[in-house]
Backbone:
């Protein structure tokens, strides 16, 4: 019998109640249908046949998995009722089979409801017409296979590939895949294209795509990695590329790895390139190394510059200690100590100025100024050096108003610094020209000399901190290489610019400072140089309080020579007791005392009636703004930084004398 065997589907057909089926009982089935049913029941491939006007549905065991929960109800049912949810998708193919045309469909998406919910499925199937013994088409036959798992797996792989491709494309490091012994570009990411300059390289060999790299060793490295299978790692290697069409070669620095790609037979089939453009990092490292070298040079220079004045100071001090010198030699030794100590003070002040400016701690006391007057004041400061070196100085002051807004002291410092450099770096008997020019927007000060000049390799860095040109053998220039850096910073704080130019070594140099011009200067302006017309102080009762015995005694001796009655104390308690007894009119107080600091001493002096109206002067090595503010709060009238210039001390004493009607 044709229904013998056939597994569960065959058994179901044998026991099925066919009274409701459009096919009727199997005894009534035509021979053609019996033949097809016998064929599908004995096939391991999922198959079904739909027969008759209502397309009664018969299937084999292999098709049961496709039906899901529709089995066993689907056996003998109407095709449309069984697969109503996908009928619109498969109806065209059914119609074609019933019209005698077979169809083959690959991976058709069908949303089936076979487990109580809609689910996407994919099928590959063929629909063929089935004819009866008279050749009339009575139904259709289907052989199918569900490929849902394969489609989903492939979709997942594709998504993963796209995700990896996106990661590859967006990776911050440079990446490329090269294939074959010619190193043909298969893949590159955006970072790689940004490195080489955007150009079409996919499908080209490395030598074709990057011809300018020939001779730099990279192609040879690729050949070696491909032939040996050994990876290569490079660190900060220079690579010269023509990144723009017809552009010049640009030097970049790259970290990279050439990693061989092996196939299933362990043979090298390509090279994976991965790395990063480290040009910016390399530049920073080079700058740090240069800065470190400059630091070392500066420290060596500083040691030399500080030892130089210390040697004559120590020698002069030892001579004075012997006590056998005549008056002329004593005066000479004293002058040496004073001159060399002044030089050391200048060095320390320059260092402190640079520190304050670079940390933004400098506050400008701006006022309306005429740069013609500022230039004159700067010349007066540098005049002794100019005269000592027998230079010819030409002044070309502007005939027009040269008014600016600025800090008088700082601008004098800036111009005297540049003028001082011109004097130091010009051979004795040289020529220096200082000019002031005015246009509608700027006032400019130029200093030109015929001195040693500036080497072209130094010129771009002349305003950098600790930069200094080569010294002459006699080391007459000296300095720490910080003066021009200070000039640039101070000029910038005034909203101006400074530039340097030189035709080369031995051809002199020129510095030009430009400051914004004040459009409407005031009619009257006090442009007197600070200290001009200062009266000599009268005799005052002065107390010096300092735990540095030598410093206290030397200052007291100097004040006594000038006609003051001076007493000395070395701690705060002694100063308080003596102030009650002797009522000093001026007290010069050190801040760092052993028993109490100068601030506390000042407060206690102000609280006792004997010294309430005395002039209190802080004389200290501390020079920060916060120290000055604390001194003012403690009751000090004046604040001088050690070692104080005697002109400053005399100015304070003169004010105190005038306040007392002397």
Residues:
């Amino acid at each position: 019998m044709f229904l013998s065997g056939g597994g569960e589907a065959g058994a179901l057909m044998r026991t099925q109640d066919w009274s409701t089926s459009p096919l009727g009982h199997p005894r009534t089935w035509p021979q053609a249908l019996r033949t097809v049913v016998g064929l599908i029941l004995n096939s391991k491939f999922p198959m079904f046949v739909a027969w008759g006007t209502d397309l009664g549905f018969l299937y084999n065991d292999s098709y049961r998995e496709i039906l899901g929960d529709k089995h066993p109800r689907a056996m003998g049912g109407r095709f449309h009722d069984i697969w109503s949810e996908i009928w619109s998708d498969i109806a065209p193919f059914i119609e074609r089979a019933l019209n005698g045309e077979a169809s083959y469909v690959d991976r058709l998406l069908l949303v089936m409801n076979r487990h109580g919910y809609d689910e996407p499925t994919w099928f590959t199937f063929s629909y063929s017409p089935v004819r009866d013994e008279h050749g009339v088409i009575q139904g259709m036959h289907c052989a199918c296979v569900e490929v849902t798992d394969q489609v989903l797996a492939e979709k997942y792989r594709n998504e993963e590939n796209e995700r990896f491709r996106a990661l590859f494309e967006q990776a911050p490091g440079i990446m490329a895949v090269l294939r074959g012994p010619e190193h043909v570009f298969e893949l590159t990411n955006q970072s790689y294209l940004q490195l080489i300059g955007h150009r079409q390289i996919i499908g080209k060999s490395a030598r074709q795509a990057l011809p300018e790299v020939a001779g730099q060793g990279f192609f040879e490295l690729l050949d070696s990695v491909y032939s040996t299978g050994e990876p290569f790692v490079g660190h900060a290697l220079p690579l010269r590329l023509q990144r723009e069409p017809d552009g010049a070669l640009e030097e970049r620095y790259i970290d990279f790895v050439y990693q061989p790609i092996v196939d299933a037979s362990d043979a090298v089939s390509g090279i994976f390139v991965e790395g990063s453009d480290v040009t910016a990092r390399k530049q920073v490292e080079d700058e740090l190394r240069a800065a470190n070298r400059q630091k070392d040079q500066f420290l060596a220079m500083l040691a030399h510059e500080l030892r130089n004045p210390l040697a004559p100071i120590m020698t002069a001090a030892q001579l004075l200690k012997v006590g056998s010198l005549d008056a002329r030699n004593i005066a000479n030794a004293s002058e040496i100590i004073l001159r060399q100590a002044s030089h050391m003070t200048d060095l320390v002040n320059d260092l402190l100025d640079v520190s304050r400016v670079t940390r933004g701690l400098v506050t400008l006391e701006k006022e309306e100024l005429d740069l013609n007057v500022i230039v004159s004041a700067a010349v007066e400061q540098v005049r002794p050096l100019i005269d000592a070196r027998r230079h010819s100085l030409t002044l070309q002051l502007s005939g027009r108003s040269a008014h600016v807004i600025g800090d008088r002291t700082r601008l004098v410092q800036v111009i005297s610094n540049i003028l001082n450099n011109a004097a130091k770096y010009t051979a004795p008997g040289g020529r220096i020209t200082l000019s002031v020019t005015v246009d509608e927007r700027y006032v400019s000060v130029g200093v030109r000399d015929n001195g040693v000049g500036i080497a072209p390799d130094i010129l771009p860095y002349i305003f950098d901190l600790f930069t200094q040109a080569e010294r002459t053998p006699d080391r007459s220039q000296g300095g720490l290489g910080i003066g021009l850096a200070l000039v640039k910073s101070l000029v910038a704080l005034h909203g101006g610019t400074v530039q340097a130019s030189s035709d080369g070594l031995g051809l002199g140099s020129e510095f030009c400072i430009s400051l914004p011009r004040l459009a409407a200067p005031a009619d009257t302006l006090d442009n007197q140089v600070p200290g001009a017309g200062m009266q000599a102080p009268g005799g005052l009762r002065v107390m010096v309080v300092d735990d540095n015995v030598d410093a206290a005694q030397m200052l007291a001796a100097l004040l006594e020579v000038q006609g003051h009655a001076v007493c000395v104390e070395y701690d705060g308690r002694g100063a308080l007791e003596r102030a009650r007894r002797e009522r000093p009119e001026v007290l010069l107080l050190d801040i760092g005392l052993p028993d109490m600091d100068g601030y506390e001493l000042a407060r206690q002096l102000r609280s006792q009636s004997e010294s309430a109206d005395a002039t209190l002067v802080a004389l200290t090595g501390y020079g920060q703004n916060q120290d000055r503010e604390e001194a003012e709060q403690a009751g000090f009238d004046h604040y001088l930084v050690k070692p104080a210039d005697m002109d400053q001390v005399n100015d304070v004493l003169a004010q105190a004398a005038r306040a007392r009607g002397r």
Q: What stands out?
A: The longest helix spans residues 279-322. The chain has a mean pLDDT of 86.
